[in-house]
Specification:
The chain has about 400 residues and is of the alpha/beta class. Helices cover about 35% and strands about 20% of the residues. Strand 12 and strand 13 form a beta hairpin.
C-alpha cells in the first residue's frame, strides 16, 4: 500500500464561460449558482468582480449579489481584494476557496485500486494506491475501497481540528454547501459495462460474478456519503474535458482491458444505457481468437495478445484500426491515448495509431488533415481524477458530470 501527496491537478473547467447565459428566475437558482461558481473557479486566485459576473452570466447585479452572499456564508467564496474601476469606487473582487469542499475519486481496476482527494479546483491534495483483486468478491472489494477512502480522508484531516481523524467518514461530509471543508462524495470509475444512472454493474469482462451488483448503493451505505459510479474511460474523458481538452475527441484506454471515452459537443457521450465506448469489443477478425466477452476477434483480445507477445507495433496497428473506425463513424477532432500499457512505452502506440489514421486520411484525399494522436494528460491517476469530477461537475454546472 502506498500513500503520497501531490499538489498537481486539473486546470480550468470547460463549463460556464463567455457564452454561458443565466436566467433571473427562482426556479433555476441552482443553475445560476453553478454558473457563478464555475466562473469563480475559472478566474482562479485573482478572482472576479460581481459586475464582471453579471456581465458574463447575463444575470442582474442584484441576482449576482444574492448568489455570492449565499456562497460566502458556508465559506465557498471570499473577498480577494479590490480592483481599480474605470469610474466610481474600486470594485471588490471575489474568489473561490478551493479548500472549502473536496471530492474523492476512485479508480477500481481489475488488479489495483487508486484513490485521490481533490479540492474544488480539481487539485489533488492526497493520494493512495493498493493492490486489489476484482475477482475476490463484492464484499471484499467494497470493504477494500471503503478502507482506502477512509484512510485518505483521515490523512487529509491530520492537523485540522475541524476535521478530526477519529470521526466517522459521514461526519466529515455534512450536507452540500453546509460547512467549510465538507466532502461532496465519492466517484468510482471501473471497467464496464455498467448502468451509470443506477450505479449497477453488468457483466464486466472476465468477472461475470459482478453482473447486477448495486455498487453505488452498497458503497454509499458503507461510507455514509453520496457515491457516483461510471466507466473508467468515461471518467477519464470527463477529467480531460474539464481540464481544458476541447472539441470532439476519443480517449482510448489500454491497460488490463481496452475501452474508449467519447466527448462530443463538450459532454461525455454515454449513450442511452451507458453502452457507448465499448471500444474494445469491436469484432475486426471474424475467425480471430476468443475474447472474454464471448465473441471472437475483438480488438481488445487482439491488442492485448500482441502486447503479451511484446509486439507493441502490432498492438498499435490493431489499436489504430479501431481508432480509424471511430474517426470514420464520428468524425472526431482528436485521439488521446492512455492507460498503463500506453504509459509504459507511449512512443510506439502514438506512432502506430497515427500511421493508420494518416493512411486513412490519404486514401480519402485529406492529405495532411489526418486526425492528430497524442498521449492524454493525467498519467496513471487520470481515471481517478476524472472520477472525482463526477462529483464536482454538477456543482459547477456540468450536466455530464
Amino acid at each position: 500500500m502506498n500513500s503520497a501527496r501531490s499538489g498537481s491537478g486539473a486546470g480550468s473547467t470547460a463549463g460556464a464561460g463567455a457564452g454561458a447565459v443565466g436566467a433571473n428566475l427562482l426556479a433555476v437558482r441552482s443553475h445560476n449558482t453553478a454558473l457563478v461558481l464555475d466562473l469563480l473557479r475559472t478566474a482562479g486566485p485573482d478572482g472576479i468582480s460581481r459586475l464582471e459576473l453579471a456581465d458574463r452570466t447575463g444575470l442582474t447585479p442584484q441576482a449576482v449579489s444574492k448568489i455570492t452572499a449565499r456562497l460566502r456564508e458556508p465559506g465557498l467564496v471570499t473577498e480577494a481584494g479590490r480592483r481599480a474601476s474605470t469610474g466610481g469606487k474600486p470594485r471588490t473582487v471575489l474568489r473561490l476557496v478551493p479548500e472549502a469542499g473536496h471530492a474523492v475519486g476512485v479508480h477500481l481496476d481489475r488488479d489495483e485500486l487508486r484513490v485521490v482527494l481533490v479540492d474544488l479546483t480539481g487539485t489533488v491534495v492526497g493520494e493512495r494506491s493498493a493492490p486489489l483483486d476484482l475477482g475476490a468478491g463484492a464484499a471484499v472489494v467494497v470493504e477494500g475501497v471503503a478502507r482506502e477512502v477512509e484512510a485518505l480522508v483521515g490523512e487529509a484531516g491530520d492537523g485540522d481540528p475541524a476535521r478530526p481523524t477519529s470521526a466517522p467518514l459521514a461526519r466529515l461530509a455534512p450536507a452540500p454547501l453546509a460547512a467549510r471543508g465538507h466532502l461532496l462524495g465519492v466517484g468510482v470509475a471501473l471497467p464496464g459495462p455498467l448502468d451509470h444512472i443506477h450505479g449497477v454493474l453488468h457483466r464486466v469482462t472476465g468477472f461475470p460474478e459482478w453482473d447486477g451488483f448495486p455498487l453505488r448503493d452498497a458503497l454509499s451505505r458503507r461510507l455514509g456519503v453520496p457515491v457516483v459510479v461510471d466507466k473508467d474511460t468515461n471518467a477519464a474523458a470527463l477529467g480531460l474535458a474539464v481540464g481544458g481538452e476541447g472539441g470532439a475527441f476519443a480517449y482510448l484506454h489500454l491497460g488490463t482491458g481496452l475501452g474508449a471515452g467519447l466527448v462530443i459537443g463538450g459532454g461525455v457521450h454515454r449513450g442511452a444505457r451507458t453502452g457507448a465506448g465499448e471500444f474494445g469489443h469491436q469484432v475486426i477478425q471474424l475467425d480471430g481468437p476468443p475474447c472474454g466477452c464471448g465473441n471472437r476477434g475483438c480488438i481488445e483480445a487482439l491488442c492485448l495478445a500482441a502486447v503479451a507477445r511484446g509486439e507493441l507495433d502490432e498492438a498499435a496497428r490493431v489499436l489504430g484500426a479501431g481508432a480509424a473506425n471511430l474517426v470514420g463513424l464520428l468524425d472526431i477532432d482528436l485521439v488521446l491515448l492512455g492507460g498503463r500499457t500506453v504509459a509504459a512505452d507511449p512512443e510506439p502506440f502514438v506512432r502506430g495509431v497515427a500511421a493508420v489514421l494518416g493512411e486513412r486520411a490519404r486514401r480519402e484525399g485529406a492529405g495532411e488533415a489526418a486526425v492528430p494522436v497524442r498521449v492524454a494528460s493525467g498519467g496513471g491517476r487520470g481515471v481517478a481524477e476524472g472520477a472525482a469530477q463526477l462529483l464536482l461537475g454538477p456543482l459547477f454546472g456540468r450536466a455530464d458530470g
